[in-house]
Structure of BTB domain-containing protein:
Amino acid sequence: MDNEQPHQELVKCVVVGDTAVGKTRLICARACNQQVSLAQLLATHVPTVWAIDQYRIYKDVLERSWEVVDSVNVSLRLWDTFGDHEKDRRFAYGRSDVVLLCFSINNPISLRNCRLMWYPEIRRFCPNTPVLLVGCKNDLRFMYRDEAYLTFFRDRSPFVRATRKSDLVMPDEARDVAHELGLYYYETSVLTYFGVNEVFENAIRAALQARRQQRFWQTNLKKVQRPLLQAPFKPPPPPKPEVKVCNSSYGEHLRQLWLGRDHSDVVLVAGSVGFSAHRFVLSAASPAFYRLFALEISADMTRSTSDSSMVSSLGDFSDDNESLLRAEQRTWRRRASCQALPPARELDHPAFQAIRSVQTEGQTVVTLGKLLTPAAVRQCLQFMYTGTIDQRQLDLQETRQAAEFLELSQLLVLLVEMQQCGGTVRDGTQLQENHEAYLRRKLQDVCLDQGLFADIVFELDDGACAAHKAMLAARCDVMKAMFGGDFRESQAKVIEFPGVREYTFHKLLCYLYTDDVPAVSAARCVNLLELGNRLCLPRLVNLVEKRVVEDLERLQSSETIEQCLRLLEPVKLHNAHQLADWCMNHLCVNYNKLCRMSPRSLRLLHPDNQAYLVEHRWPPVWYLKDYDYYQKCLVERDRETKHALKSSSGCLCFSRKSESDPALSGHL
Ligand SMILES: Nc1nc2c(ncn2[C@@H]2O[C@H](COP(=O)(O)OP(=O)(O)O)[C@@H](O)[C@H]2O)c(=O)[nH]1
Ligand SMILES: [Mg+2]
C-alpha cells in the first residue's frame, strides 16, 4: 500500500503514560474517528495492539492519518505503548517527532508519575522532542455524578469502583505540573470527543515547529503556528429532573364505589329488585338520568321557594341542609339562567315510571319502566360506574334495549358489536378507558361546574365548596375514615375546613372527581401540596408537582428563580420531593444569577441546602477559574504575537527565539 503522499510531512507521535489512563482509547478515537459510548467504555477494554502496522493493513486508518495543519500536508503516525514502568520503550521513542504524555484526570497518581517517572524517561530517550501533557477522560469531571455511570458500578463487584469527586485532578493542578516541566497542556475525552482532534493537531504543530528549526529552508513550514490554546471544557448542565406521576387508581376506586354503594342517594326499582346508586354518577353517565334528576331539583326548588316551612321540616341538621340546598340552588340558578329547564313532560320517558323523594331518608326512589329488566339494569349500572359489563350473565337483547333507553351510547356500540361478532368483546380495556375519560368529563361538568346532587359542604377560609361524600370516600381513605367512623364529620352535612382556601379545595375536588389537576400556579401551590400530603394522596402531590413545574417553566427567568427559592424548603416538608429536586436543579444551574439577585434569601436557606448549591452549582467553580485563566492567556498571547511580529526580522530561522517561550507561556 502506498504509505505517503507527495509533499507530505510524516509526524511520528508517541503516546506514553501509566496503564489504563486512556492512551489506547485516545489513539483509536483519533485514528478511527470514533466517539465511544458510555456502555462501550465501561464494558470493553481495548488491549494495546496499536502500532505502525495498522497504517499498512487498513487503508482507512492510513487515510485518516492524513491531515492538513496550517497548510502543511501531514501523515500522523501514532505509536501506542505499554504503561508498565519497567518495560523498554526505546523502540517506540526512536525518531519520534512529538510525545503525548498522558495521565487520567481521575487518577492523581498517574499525574504524579508523569513528573517523577515519565518525563525523565522521555528526556533520556528524546532530549529535544516536544512533549504535550494530556489529561485523559476529562468527562469524569461531570460523569462521576451521572446516574447511568453510577448504576454500572453499583452492579459490579467491590473490586471496581466509580470515580469520586476526591479522585479528580483539577485543571489548575495539572497545569502546575505542565508549568514545572515546561510542557503544553491539553485535556481530552473519548466519550464527548472533547479535545481529541485538537490535541493531535497541536501535537503536529509542536512537531512541525521543531522541524522548522532544524530545516529552516523548508518553506512549506512557514505558516505553522505555535500550538494553540485549548478553550476550557464546560461540563453540560445537570439534566432537569423529570416529574413522574404514580399510577392511577381511579378505575379501581369507581369499581369500589359500584360494589360498596356507600352514601347512596337513589334507589332504582326494576321489577321487584331495588338498586341503590348515586345520582351524580347516574347523571354524569346517562343523559336520560341527568334530565330526570334535573327535573327533580327544579321541582324541589319550586317547592322550597313556595313553601318556606319545608327546610325546617328536614330534620336535625336544618342549618346544614339549608346551606346545602342554598349551594345547589345557587348553581342551579346560575345554570338555569343560561340553559332552559327541562320540560315536565320528560318524565314521560319510557324508562321511568315514577320518581319520588323520601325526605326523611334523603333518598330518591325511581321506579323504572317494565321494559327494563333487573338483569339489564344491573349491567347498565355496572357499565355506568366501571365501563365494564358482566359477560357471564349477559342478555344482549335486554341490555341493549336498556342501554338505548338510558342513552348509554358507548355501551350501545359495544353491544351492537358483540351481537355482530357472536358475543365476544373486541378490546375491553380500550372501552373502559374511553368510558372513564367520558365519565371524568361529565363528573367535572355535573359535580364541579354545576355543583349538583351534593350532600356535603365544606366551609373554607374564603368560601364554601359542595361535594359528594360517596366520591370523596371512594377516592380518599382519610375522607372515608372521616365519614365512616365515629367522628362528628360522619353525620355532619357541613364541615369546617380551616386553613384551606377555595382555590386549593377546588383543585383537590378536581383531582378526586377527574383524576387530574388543572393548571396550578407556583405562587399558590404550597397549601395544595400540604393538603394532598395531609390526605395521603401521593398521586395528587405528583400531579401538582407537574403542574407547578409547567408554571415555573412559563415564568420569566428571574421570577422562576425567586419562586424556586421560595418553594424549595416548604415543598420538601410536604413530601413534594420531585418539585424540590426540580427547584434545586434550577437554582444550581442559575447559581450565579441567584447570587446576584437574592443574596439575602440565599443566606436564609438551611445550611445543608446552601452547601448543596455551592457543591453542585453550574458551571462549576473550577470551570469559571479555568475560563478566566484562558481569557487572560488569550490576551497575553495576542500581545506577544503583535510584539513578535514587530520585532521579527522576517527570516524564519531567526524568529524562533522570540516565539519559543511565549508559545508555552499561554499554557502554563
Ligand atoms: N470515562 C472515560 N473512560 C475512558 C476514556 N478513555 C479511556 N477510558 C477507559 O479507561 C480504561 C483504560 O483505557 P485504555 O485506553 O485501554 O488505557 P491505556 O492502558 O492507557 O491504553 C478503559 O476501561 C477505557 O474504557 C475517556 O475518555 N473517558
Ligand atoms: Mg493501552
In short: Residues 19-25, 41, 45-46, 48, 83, 136-137, 139-140, 143, 189-191 surround guanosine-5'-diphosphate (ligand 1) (CB under 6 Å). The chain has 30 helices and 13 strands.
